[in-house]
Design a protein that fits this description.
4-stranded mixed sheet, two-stranded antiparallel ribbon, elongated, single chain, alpha+beta
Length: about 220
Amino acid sequence: AVVSTQRTGDRCRQCMGKKVVRERKILEVHITKGMKDGQKITFSGEGDQDPEIEPGDIVIVLDEKEHPVYKRNGSDLAIEMNVKLVEALCGFEKLITTLDNRTLIVQSFIGDIIKPRDVKCIMGEGMPLLRDPFSKGKLIVQFNVEFPEKGDIPSATLQQIEALLPPREPIEKKPDMEEVMLSDYDASASAHQAYADDSDDEGGPGGPGVQCRTQ
């Protein structure tokens, strides 16, 4: 067997004979337009080094930070837009600030009826394409229509609005039918009531089948 020895006086004073030294190096990471979450950037041969081992790679994995307004879907971006009922029926102009701080004027004209949860798109206002940064995906807009609250519109005005809208669909009433009224629904109260009903079915806090003794 061949044994490698070093005399104390021949040892490198920097590494003390360990053949490696710690070194801090700054790597500059270039993020290209259009890169995606989870994409990897590799620096070949920049890992830990050892005289008898080939140096490894340093791999940077991109972690895309969420945006409070925009949601990314591949090369497309998506946002939600709130419009009032009058805007949904009669058109609107809305301002959008893009990720690169441009301002877009989104227009909808009279006759372009916007329904709740309708989805429209603006071409060329999404994310840049990775290998073609001058081309962009779509900006997808999902609409939420805000209806007036109860009492906001006087009854007389409602009658005028009804006269302008398509007529209601009539129904044929029969003697064996029952008329019912709609009430406001409270989801939290219903969940509490369901829990209370389940507790009653199980015999209360004592659990199912538990009863007090009689003497």
